[in-house]
Design a protein that fits this description.
By secondary structure, the chain is an alpha+beta fold. The chain is built from 8 helices and 4 strands; from the N terminus they run E-H-H-H-H-H-H-H-E-E-H-E. A hairpin with a 2-residue loop joins strand 2 and strand 3. GO terms for molecular function: monoatomic cation transmembrane transporter activity.
Length: about 300
């Protein structure tokens, strides 16, 4: 058996820098928006605007989770973590998902209680809430587009998850904007209904992120499309007679591979080793994000 590590130093460094920079941008934007929403939400008596502010504050927690994971995920392998620390990214994504679930359910519960208690005496909302909601909507949509672009550029699922979290904010802010406008024209219960809808959206997204993270933490294989590319790369390598028992498992955004390579029985171990090393290098050049390739030599 030959274990052939594939190093991704340049990619890991680029991912770390991109994650740090983009996440701090998100922290600053969300902090400013949250402060503005809370102040104007209290002044204007808008439940939906305050709910949206709470959602923005949850972004700050998820942003710090990304920063912490970014710090530890690319730490070198050690005795207690011989396969590296890449799954810190999956743990961070799981935390974000659970956070979204908690926030969403809480918003639905609180909104439902207010609706059941009656809407006749609900206060009118000040027009300043509409202005702030519009500004927040634009800012969050721009933040989503920025974070998604960075996440795709460095191929980081953690950053992409955080970007879609920002998109959930943008969608919720749109609903809040519509609800505030409806309240201003006399539909006084629209503000509360908006907070419930926002909560439902957050809950759905949180459930999806949580489920995906659980799969990734349970040695989930790479997707079918990626597997086919890996198979094509292996079989196209000169000197390979065939292969079998190909297994993959995800670790963060990277992949571990275990495969049996078939060689003529007359081939020397040295020759087989060189071909196996070529397989490893080809997988790396195809940008499969491979951490390690473990090969078994089988004579045919």
């Amino acid at each position: 058996m030959e274990s052939i590590p594939v190093h991704q130093d340049n990619l890991a460094l680029a991912r770390k820098r991109a994650a740090s920079k983009s996440t701090w941008v998100s922290v600053i934007v969300n902090l400013l928006l949250s402060i503005a929403q809370i102040i104007i939400g209290i002044f204007s008596a808008s439940t939906a605007l305050i709910s949206d502010a709470i959602h923005s504050l949850s972004d700050l927690v998820s942003d710090f989770a990304v920063l912490i994971a970014n710090k530890f995920s690319d730490s070198p392998a050690d005795e207690s973590h011989p396969y590296g620390h890449y799954r810190f990214e999956n743990i961070a994504s799981l935390f974000i998902g659970l956070l979204l679930l908690a926030v969403g359910v809480s918003m639905i519960w609180n909104g439902g209680e207010r609706l059941l208690s009656g809407t006749a005496n609900l206060p009118a909302i000040h027009y300043s809430a509409l202005i702030v909601a519009g500004i927040v909507l634009i800012a969050k949509e721009l933040l989503f587009r920025y974070l998604l672009a960075v996440g795709k550029k460095v191929d980081s699922s953690m950053l992409i998850v955080n970007a879609w979290h920002a998109r959930s904010d943008a969608l919720s802010s749109l609903i809040v904007l519509i609800a505030i406008a409806a309240n201003l024209v006399g539909i006084n219960w629209a503000d509360i209904v908006a907070s419930i809808i926002v909560g439902a959206m957050i809950t759905k997204m949180g459930g999806e992120f949580t489920w995906k993270s659980i799969h990734q933490l349970s040695d989930h294989a790479t997707d079918e499309e990626e597997r086919k590319l890996i198979e094509q790369t292996i079989i196209s390598t000169p000197g390979i007679s065939g292969f079998h028992h190909l297994r993959t498992r995800k670790s963060g955004d990277f992949t571990h591979i275990d495969v049996h390579l078939e060689f003529p029985g007359t081939m020397s171990v040295k020759e087989a080793h060189e071909i196996a090393l070529d397989v490893s290098n080809r997988l790396k050049s195809k940008k499969h994000n491979i951490i390690e390739v473990v090969t078994h030599f089988d004579p045919i």
